[in-house]
Design a protein that fits this description.
37% helix; mainly alpha; extended; 7% strand; 3-stranded mixed beta sheet
């Protein structure tokens, strides 16, 4: 049982189970239904619920170059290597202020944002009629920290970063 699912307590205080894929435990080895165990879709603190990875999968799914099938595992690896290089270095991400993840990771996002602000200011000075608000246009805000499982306190975050 511990191999295929983990047990947690549901909101009502009853034991609950969740399969590794988030589905409730089911199948012949579990019996149908599990007696005294409520079905749950909650998987607290699991890496499978990583919004960053889920976003990349959605982009991958709608990529026009994504093949219906790969000829071999080597073909899949080669496609993935090219795709994720593009995704991290060339693709603009709305969730991080239309920056590239590589720029955010290496601390270049602030200088990119400053250059964008200069270009917008120059465009407004040259063609004020194109800017209806009359105010100075600004690029999107810089992204803040992103966490998969945020530590409870800043002290925890500092301790974890010094351990790595």
């Amino acid at each position: 049982m511990s191999r295929a699912c983990f047990t947690l307590v549901s909101a009502r205080g009853h034991p609950a189970s969740a399969g590794r894929d988030g589905s409730g435990a089911h199948g012949p080895e579990w019996g149908v239904p599990l007696q005294g165990v409520a079905k749950s879709h909650s998987r607290p603190k699991t890496a499978n619920d990583n919004p960053h990875v889920e976003a990349s999968f959605k982009t991958l799914k709608y990529c026009p170059d994504f093949p219906g099938r790969f000829g071999s595992i080597e073909d899949a690896r080669a496609f993935s290597q090219d795709f994720y290089t593009w995704y991290n270095r060339d693709h603009f991400h709305s969730g991080i202020g239309y920056h590239h993840p590589v720029d955010v990771h290496y601390g270049r996002a602030a200088s990119v944002r400053d250059r964008r602000a200069a270009v917008l200011a120059g465009a407004q000075a040259a063609h004020p009629e194109r800017f209806a608000s009359g105010g100075l246009p600004t690029p999107p805000d810089l992204p803040g920290p992103a966490w998969i499982n945020k530590p409870k306190t800043e002290k925890d975050a500092t301790e974890k970063s010094t351990q790595n």
